[in-house]
């Protein structure tokens, strides 16, 4: 699968750089043509001569070529276009941040910015650096550009600490790339519709009935689906969340009625629809044209039911795979299973308010997934980003059966 492929390996300055000699060896053995770019600090960890010998190509690290006359240069644009694949391994926090923000202060970065091929990056750093929000932001940004992250391992780190942050082993890097070349991304070519956030139901021009949904679960689902290759339409009620992703179209709505209209506009063309929004169940029967005055001691608002968006999607379902959420406080599995049948869903994600840390406004969630055959899978308490990955992976498993 790698035979004849032009692979550009960018090595940055982490101790895991010593492992890249094995990586180059594996790539060459698999029949690939390999060229190596080192950053300045990488050459303290691994010898250019070793890499040049193993890759059978000169190893470069600066714009000026090492010829006698000193008149030629290493053309980053040419190298970027030569590559069928680019791998940055180890990818340090510093280089990841530069990739995320387009800083271009060395040959590797200029080549990265010139490359049009798939770019894989294998992070390697200490556990706290790995967990730091700015590193996580770099990952998010790079994934949103379509770059592919080779997951880190967990274990003893160069610092002597134990935890996440080890660069994937060379064999695992090669296996990851082969898997990508073989299958592409699991949701490649698929369109996914996701609802997120609360809805606001107007009482008068300044007041509304709403709820505390943050929209985070739906936004994380959108990212996880897009990073798995899907094109995503994210229809969200009012939230403070921001999102920029090349494969996510964000459609902002306010009320349940607006969400209903937007969802039905896109539904026919999608393969998967996920209802993660906390849609209001009732709305004021009439909306006052002027601000309501506080004249009386008591005040009543007559409410009418909103349309159940997910139910309507279940009724119209043709080829779509339909996923809903259920937030239950009692007889959870039984109630969620009933909802799954009633709304004609393929999967329902149950989060129980009985679990501490789960649900509304929190950054973590604990879910149970129930499928059409009422098979049940329970998951640990996790961040919403990890929960989103579990849900998307479960959907991928089901649609591939
Ligand atoms: O029936 P219940 O509101 O408990 O179901 C929750 C599920 O239905 C969620 O997936 C939610 O997004 C969806 N829903 C909807 N439209 C409504 C109410 C709920 O799509 N009006």
Could you explain how this protein is built, in words?
The protein has 401 residues and is an alpha/beta fold. The chain is built from 13 helices and 22 strands. It has helices at residues 20-29, 48-55, 76-82, 93-101, 107-114, 127-131, 133-144, 170-183, 216-227, 256-267, 309-316, 332-342, 384-399; strands at residues 6-11, 33-38, 59-60, 85-91, 119-123, 148-149, 153-156, 162-166, 191-196, 201-202, 208-209, 231-236, 248-252, 272-275, 282-284, 303-305, 321-328, 347-352, 364-365, 367-371, 376-378, 382-383. Helix 12 links the parallel strand 17 (321-328) and strand 18. Helix 9 (216-227) crosses helix 13. The longest helix is centred in the C-terminal third of the chain and has 16 residues, at 384-399. The model has no long low-confidence stretch (mean pLDDT 93). Cytidine-5'-monophosphate binds at residues 195, 256, 275-277, 279, 281, 306, 308-310, 324-326, 339. Cytidine-5'-monophosphate binds next to helix 11 and strand 17.
Can you summarize this structure?
The protein has 401 residues and is of the alpha/beta class.
Q: Provide the helix percentage.
A: 25-40%
| Nearest-integer average pLDDT | 93
Query: In the CATH scheme, what's the topology name of the largest domain?
Result: Rossmann fold
Q: End-to-end span in angstroms?
A: 25 Å
Q: Let me know the largest β-sheet.
A: 8 strands, mixed
Oligomer category: single chain
At the first level of CATH, what is the class of the largest domain? Alpha Beta
Q: Tell the overall outline.
A: elongated
CATH second-level architecture of the largest domain = 3-Layer(aba) Sandwich
- Report the β-strand fraction as a percent range: 15-25%
What topology, given as strand order, has the largest sheet?
13-12-9-14-17-18-20-21
CATH superfamily of the largest domain: CoaB-like
């Amino acid at each position: 699968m790698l035979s004849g492929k032009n692979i550009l390996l960018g090595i940055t300055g982490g101790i895991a750089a010593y492992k890249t000699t094995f990586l180059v060896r594996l790539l060459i053995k698999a029949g690939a043509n390999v060229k190596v770019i080192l950053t300045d600090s990488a050459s303290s960890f691994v010898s250019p001569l070793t890499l040049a010998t193993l890759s059978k190509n000169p190893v470069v690290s600066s714009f000026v070529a090492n010829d006698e006359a000193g008149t030629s240069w290493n053309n980053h644009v040419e190298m970027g276009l030569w590559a069928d694949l680019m791998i940055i391994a180890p990818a340090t926090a510093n280089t990841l941040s530069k990739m995320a923000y387009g800083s271009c202060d060395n040959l590797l970065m200029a080549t990265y910015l010139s490359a049009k091929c798939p770019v894989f990056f294998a992070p390697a750093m200490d556990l706290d650096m790995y967990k730091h929000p700015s590193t996580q932001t770099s990952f998010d940004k790079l994934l949103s550009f379509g770059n592919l992250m080779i997951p880190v391992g967990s274990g003893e780190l160069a610092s002597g600490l134990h935890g996440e942050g080890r660069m994937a082993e060379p064999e695992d890097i090669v296996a990851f790339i082969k898997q990508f070349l073989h299958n592409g991304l699991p949701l490649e070519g698929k369109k996914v519709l996701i609802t997120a956030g609360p809805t606001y139901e107007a009482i008068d021009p300044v007041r509304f009935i709403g709820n505390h949904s943050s929209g985070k679960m739906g936004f994380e689902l959108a990212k996880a689906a897009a990073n798995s290759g899907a094109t995503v339409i994210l229809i969200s009620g009012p939230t403070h969340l921001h999102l920029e992703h090349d494969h996510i179209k964000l459609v902002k709505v306010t009320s349940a009625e607006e969400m209903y209209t937007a969802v039905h506009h896109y539904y026919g063309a999608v393969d998967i629809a996920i209802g993660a929004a906390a849609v209001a169940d009732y709305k004021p029967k009439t909306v006052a044209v002027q601000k309501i005055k506080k004249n009386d001691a008591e005040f009543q608002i007559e409410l009418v039911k909103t349309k159940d968006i997910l139910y309507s999607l279940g009724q119209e379902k043709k080829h779509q795979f339909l996923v809903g959420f259920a937030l239950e406080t009692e007889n959870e599995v039984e109630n969620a299973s009933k909802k799954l049948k009633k709304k004609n869903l393929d999967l329902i994600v149950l989060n129980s308010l009985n679990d501490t840390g789960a649900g509304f406004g929190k950054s973590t969630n604990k879910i149970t997934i129930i499928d059409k055959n009422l098979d049940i899978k329970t998951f640990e308490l996790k961040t919403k980003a990890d929960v989103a990955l579990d849900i998307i992976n479960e959907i991928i498993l089901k649609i591939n059966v």
